[in-house]
Amino acid sequence: MKRSVLTVVWQICRRELSSYYQSALAWFILSISFSLAFLWGYAYIRHESTSFVALQRIFYMLSGTTMITGVLISMRLIAEEKMQGTIELLFTSPINEAQLVLGKFSAAVIFLLVQAVVTLPIPLLVVIFGGSNLGHVVAGMVGVLLIGAATAAMGTFYSALTKIQLLAALMTAANLIFFLLLGFFSPYIDQPLKSVLREFSFYVHFMDFEKGVISLKHIVFYLSVVVFYLYAASLALAARRWR
Amino acid sequence: MKAVLEFFRSRVALLLLGVALLLYVASGFSEKGFAYFLLLFVAGLLYVLCGVSLYTLFAVSERQAGAYRLIELAYWLMLFSAVCYFLQIDPVWLKITPENRGQLTERLRQILQILYFSGFAFVLIALVVSVGVRLEAKEAPAAIATLGGLLLLLVALNYWAHISPASVDMTLMRRFSLSADSRELLRGIESKVKVTAFYPFFSELYRDVELLLRDAVSANGKISYTFIDPLREKNLADEKKVDRIGTILIEAEDPQETDPAKKLRTSRFEILDEEGLKRLERELVSNLLQVSGRKRNIYYTQGHEEKSVSGNFKEDTISQFDENLRALRHQLRQLTPAEGFPAKMPQADLVLIIGPQRDFSQAEKKALKKYFDEGGRILLALDPESAADFSFLLEPLKVKYVRQKLHSDYSLPPGKTTLQSVNYSEHAITAPFVKRPEERKITIFPGAGYFETGTESNPDFDVNYFLLSHFTSWIDKVPNGLRDDKVEPVSSFKIGLAALSKKSGARLVAVADSDFLVNRFADMQQNRELAMRLVGWLTEEDKLTGIVAGKYDDEKVKLTGTKDTVVFHLFLYIYPAALLLAGFMIVRAKRRRMSEHTRLQE
Fold first, then answer.
1. In this predicted model, what pLDDT tens digit does every residue of B278-326 receive, in sequence order?
2. Does B582 touch chain A (CB under 8 A)?
3. Which of A20, A21, A27, A141 to mutate to test the interface with B (most CBs of B within 10 A)?
């Protein structure tokens, strides 16, 4: 019986999700990321910050914890299958590289969504006790999810390159740091390279979200990163036929 | 020789990487001198050698292979990217583009920059992949080419999103968005305006200012903006004669101006802190309109001992008011009867009559009345001690100017006849003065008379008494300087009126004092702002005068006492522990199921 593309993707995603939540690591990540974000946000709340600044700082911290989570959960996506030798088994079934990559990535994004929901009480504290509005929280959360999805896509690509999870995580982290540093180093570079490098910076694109503004150009940027890395990941899997 | 040829054959990819590196190093040279050209020559030579190797040293069978195709792709793409790069560098670009470079030319240059940058990035990817690809893997080049195509598509999509800014401001009171009035005003700008903001990239204000500028650009594509860091890009800041962080410079070319020295109209203001951000919208919109808008002809009447722009006692002149009007690019002239007053009156967009001490002649009054009846604009600042009589203008409004100085028990600076006004009615002129009671602004009027109105009113005019004296004001009916409670009760008097003719559109502002405009009082409290808003209303910039400073207030998070303790303990231990507990139970259940399964299998 021929199954539709979406059914295959959903089955892979469900299998991956159940393996996430049946491992202690996922719960540990959720708990630690919440604690870190809360301590940071609480420090700002206690330091007489205005509700706007407090929300901005909370989303800054949440973007950091989400990126770390993105690296940690994506490192095992394909590398683990390679290490256990189950990837060849997967490819004997009627699944192509793109479906596998999409299914695994969807699971990572759903995990990040759950993490966003778990950490939601922190910005809501500012809304309840600081008179801020939900719109700012929505914008911040959209940004957090987008930056998380971009990180997970990057991690999926590096996970497809190697069978060692730690190496995949290190490569993702290095690439992520490179993208983050582009923004910080761009002021020291002359035009036109300065503007181009700034446009590649992960954090520069997040700044508007943390201030409560949803901009089309930043959404397009993060989605472009996702599309590019996912396509590269499926190419990396297909490349086993080239070597 | 054979070894050299083999070296080239086996390392073409590496050599092409070297060419890319040399071009990158050369692009970093600001001076196009000997070293620059030497690097270009070496890179060019190496590139040609790579081409020769690529098409002579490989066997026909090898040319069908994946690795070869990737290198070939990288080779030609490198040439394309280099051409794009050289086309957009200053010396070439300035020669090949027309002198009056428009927005389209700038866009074209940006596209070239994106093409060369993406091209080189793709060359690097292709060369790296070519090293790990089997020779006979024929599908690799096609896959890499598809990746390149996708990359180009994504870059184009990002560029489109960059040049068509669209955003949704979700903040409370939409603090990063322009108001509907401001957007409408900006839509009316017809000439190109360039905004340059001087902030370091890491400054918190950088993003805030950019968000509002982006909204201005989305309102009118003729507005463009750029940021300069005065610390790191000192040469660019010096060119614009700016040395202060927080300066916002607005430049526009006046198409009607023939003198090249005066063609560029500029205006600047400063936003230095978070509090200043609240007035960014008003400052930005008014400055943009000033540099792009039509110049107004404003005439002062002279020859009746009016307040003068120059004089021996500078404090008693209105030179600051004059400077402020000139900064708005208005054309100001002083019109004495000898210089053509009142014959030249019809040319004026606004006539300022500030503190005349002598009365106008009948001919002058007739001309002024005619000018007003035909839709003219007049600012009338009167003094109680003056002999000038303007009843010919005020009577049709059913208003009488009372030449008796008001006294006040509450004066700042002290002085019985120095009035303080904190009462304003709802009007475009006083919009920012009354919209926020907690920030009620004060204006000072030394020695003012007042306006008296009857029960009658003229239906042809809308008359608004926008300015009222402090409620502790009184009239010294028994002239002893002391207030008698019985005959001299305290009250609030009308000291300013704005009249708008429903028929002709004529506008008149009359203020019962002219001293509030002189240098001595111009900088006191909000006198300057009031003066500029009077002129703004008279020159029909109602919407501009109606834009008020940011209305948002940042509340502090009020988390104290028991709530604080509960939240702290709940979120620091209980909530994370509950998450861990849930995880522990799920993992344990899974392990139990697994061990059960294993036991059953055994």
1. 888 888 888 888 777 667 788 888 888 888 888 778 888 998 888 888 7
2. yes
3. A27
Query: What is the DSSP secondary structure assignment for residue B100, as one 8-state letter?
Result: S
Cβ neighbours of A135 in B, within 8 Å: 170-172
The span from the CA of A236 to the CA of A240, in Å, is 7
pLDDT score at B74: 86
CA distance B495 to B451: 6
Query: Cα-Cα-Cα-Cα dihedral of A34, A38, A40, A43, to 10°?
Result: -170
Q: Which of chain B's residues have a Cβ under 8 Å away from the Cβ of A53?
A: 554
Domain locations in chain A as residue ranges: 12-242
Nearest to B211 among A135, A213, A238 (CB): A213
Please state the ipTM of this predicted complex.
Answer: 0.87
Mean pLDDT lowest among A90-104, B478-492, B506-520: B478-492
Provide DSSP, B474-512.
EE-SSSSSS--TTTS--B--EEEEEEEETTT--EEEEES
- In angstroms, what CA-CA distances link B128 with B15, B77, B133, B144, B157? 12, 14, 9, 11, 26
Residues 55-114 of A with CB under 8 A from B: none
pLDDT digits (tens, 9 = 90+) for B226-283: 888 888 888 888 888 888 889 999 988 776 666 776 677 788 888 888 778 888 888 8
Closest CA of chain A from B217, distance in Å: 14
Which string of DSSP letters, residue by residue, matches A186-233? GGGS-TTHHHHHHHH-HHHHHHHHHTTEEEHHHHHHHHHHHHHHHHHH
Residues A164-174 have a mean pLDDT of 92
> Are residues A135 and B170, on separate chains, in Cβ contact within 8 Å?
yes
Contact predicate B462/B425, CB 8 Å: no
Work out the minimum CA distance from A52 to partner chain B, whole angstroms.
7
Phi, psi dihedral angles at B254 (to 5 degrees): -90, 110
The Cα–Cα gap between B32 and B22 comes to 15
Q: Which ranges in B242-347 belong to alpha helices (H)?
A: 260-263, 280-292, 319-327
Q: Provide the token pair at B336.
A: 């004495």
Strand B399-402 to strand B377-381: parallel, antiparallel, or no bridges (unpaired)? Answer: unpaired
pTM of the complete model = 0.70
By the 8 A CB rule, do B377 and B350 touch?
yes
Query: Hey, is the C-beta of A191 within 8 angstroms of any chain B C-beta?
Result: no
For A187, list phi and psi in degrees, rounded to 5. -60, -20
